[in-house]
């Protein structure tokens, strides 16, 4: 059983367990209120009896000698025990939820690490400066078309660490980059972040950064850069 399957199995039983604990808490709270009500009535009656006994001279008005009956004291102790039991149940419910939260944090951390490794692996194989620079560009006129070129890619961590300091408008990079690294887009910078390919097979630039062309997500259908779109419109107007 994987970590996720185990977590889901434990999570499915959590609501039932919590429901039982909350139901027991309600029953204890109901019993506690009833015991407290009865004990208050008993204590009030005993106070009245003591006051009458003091007035009649049957009881010495000495606060050190005046006390509630054993029955009233036992009821108070019983109330305290029920209250302590309620607190213990609440702590158990809290610890149970907290344990699931910690388990979820561990799963998310592990999942994030695996996702980062997958992204780095995909970026290393789809970066225009590596495989796309040779195979994809040389195959622009092939029968496979340019539909696959439009897929966005993430920059490789090792090759484009310096590029992350550039903003979405294509400002000069703050950190030096490899002079042999191919450049793309209108900004003439290296590959970084998410990029999109122009669907014009004769585009002189081919790859563009999302921020430089005003994109926030992968375009649907064919997409042309501003230069190729203008050229296409001029040809239609003739």
UniProtKB/TrEMBL annotation:
PHD-type domain location: 182-231
Bias type Polar residues, positions: 123-133
The keyword Disulfide bond belongs to this UniProt entry's keyword annotation: no
Highest taxon listed in the record's lineage: Eukaryota
CDD domains in UniProt: ING_plant, PHD_Yng1p_like
Principal location class: nucleus
Transmembrane in keyword set: no
Annotated InterPro entries: ING_fam, ING_N_histone-binding, Zinc_finger_PHD-type_CS, Znf_FYVE_PHD, Znf_PHD, Znf_PHD-finger, Znf_RING/FYVE/PHD
Ranges where the record places region Disordered: 119-156
Keywords: Chromatin regulator, Coiled coil, Growth regulation, Metal-binding, Nucleus, Transcription, Transcription regulation, Zinc, Zinc-finger
PROSITE patterns to which the protein is assigned, alphabetical: ZF_PHD_1, ZF_PHD_2
Gene3D superfamilies, alphabetized: 6.10.140.1740, Zinc/RING finger domain, C3HC4 (zinc finger)
Subcellular location field: Nucleus
Stretches of the chain forming a coiled coil according to its record: 18-45
PANTHER family attached to this UniProt entry: INHIBITOR OF GROWTH PROTEIN (PTHR10333), INHIBITOR OF GROWTH PROTEIN 3 (PTHR10333:SF103)
Protein family per UniProt: Belongs to the ING family.
Domain comment quoted from the record: The PHD-type zinc finger mediates the binding to H3K4me3.
Function summary: Component of an histone acetyltransferase complex.
Subunit structure: Component of an histone acetyltransferase complex. Interacts with H3K4me3 and to a lesser extent with H3K4me2.
Name used for this protein in its record: PHD finger protein ING
Species, as recorded: Hevea brasiliensis
């Amino acid at each position: 059983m994987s970590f996720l399957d185990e977590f889901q199995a434990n999570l499915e039983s959590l609501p039932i367990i919590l429901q039982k604990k909350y139901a027991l808490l309600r029953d204890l709270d109901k019993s506690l209120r009833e015991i407290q009500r009865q004990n208050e009535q008993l204590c009030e009656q005993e106070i009245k009896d003591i006051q009458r006994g003091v007035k009649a001279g049957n009881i010495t008005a000495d606060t050190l000698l005046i006390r509630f009956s054993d029955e009233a004291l036992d009821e108070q102790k019983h109330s305290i025990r029920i209250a302590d039991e309620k607190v213990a149940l609440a702590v158990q419910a809290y610890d149970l939820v907290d344990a699931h939260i910690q388990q979820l944090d561990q799963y998310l951390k592990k999942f994030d690490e695996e996702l980062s490794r997958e992204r780095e692996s995909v970026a290393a194989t789809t970066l225009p400066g590596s495989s796309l620079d040779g195979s994809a560009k040389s195959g622009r006129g092939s029968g496979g078309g340019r539909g696959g070129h439009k897929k966005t890619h993430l920059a490789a961590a090792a090759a484009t660490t310096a590029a992350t300091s550039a903003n979405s408008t294509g400002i000069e990079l703050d950190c030096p980059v490899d002079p042999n690294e191919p450049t793309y887009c209108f900004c003439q910078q290296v590959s970084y972040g998410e990029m999109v390919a122009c669907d014009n097979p004769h585009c002189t630039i081919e790859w563009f950064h999302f921020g430089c062309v005003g994109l926030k997500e992968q375009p649907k259908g064919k997409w042309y850069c501003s230069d190729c779109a203008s050229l296409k419109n001029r040809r239609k107007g003739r």
